[in-house]
Structure formats: C-alpha cells, structure tokens
Amino acid sequence: MLCNDVSERAFQIERGGQWSKGKSAETFNPAGPWLATPEEIDDVNALGMWLDVNGERRQTGSTATMVFDPFTIVHYLSQFLVLEPGDLVNTGTPPGVGMGLRPPVYLRPGDLIELGIDGLGTQRQHVVAPR
C-alpha cells in the first residue's frame, strides 16, 4: 500500500506539506473486503465522494478535482516500483478534514463515521478508544 496524502489542497497550500501519518498506522486505513475491477467503474475521473461524522456532512468531493488523475498517478508510480494487482494507492481526501477546521475538530470515541464513493459503496466505522 502506498500513502501520499495530499488532502485538501487549500489546507496544503496554506500550511505547506503532506500528511502520511493519517493513513499509515495500524487500523488507520480500513479497506475491503473487496476491491473493484476497472469494468465496475464508469469513470474513475468523476467519482463523487462524501463523509459524515455523527450524521453531519463533513466532506463532499470528486475525483474530478484531484491535482493528478488516477491514470497519471499510476503511470508516475510505475516508473519507480512494480505495482501488482490489488495494490492500493491512497491519494488524499476532499476538503473538510477536522484538523483543518477553525477550531480543529478531532474524532472521539463513540463517533460514527459513514462514507461513500459513487459506484463503489459505503463504509461505516465507530471510533473506539485505544487499548
């Protein structure tokens, strides 16, 4: 899995820098249990995305607003490493990340996160306290 989180471009430009820790620690990157194949997705360059926390919409976006489209990202990465079927490449998230809000809003134990991507389905996670 490759993680190069260039989330929320306005926040990145204002603060300067990229975040990798948001998706790198154990349990921080839930995925699966299935992966979509190319013929299951109409247009990877136009997938709507959304995320709610406790029923409140925090993020709405689209792959159409990515700095580099998925094809360009895979092409670029393929110049430096071998990508295999099933490899995941994380690219970031739409505007609305809690850390970028004023004041910042962080997830707490008990929060319910629901998210979805057009044509790919939805996920639901409950935030639990660390052991």
TrEMBL record:
What are the GO MF terms of this UniProt record?
Answer: catalytic activity; metal ion binding
GO BP, one example?
small molecule metabolic process
Q: Which Pfam families match?
A: FAA_hydrolase
Keywords attached to this entry: Metal-binding
| Domain Fumarylacetoacetase-like C-terminal: residue ranges | 1-128
Q: Which domain of life is it from?
A: Bacteria
Q: What family classification does the UniProt entry report for this protein?
A: Belongs to the FAH family.
Q: What is this protein called?
A: Fumarylacetoacetase-like C-terminal domain-containing protein
* Protein source organism: Phytohabitans flavus
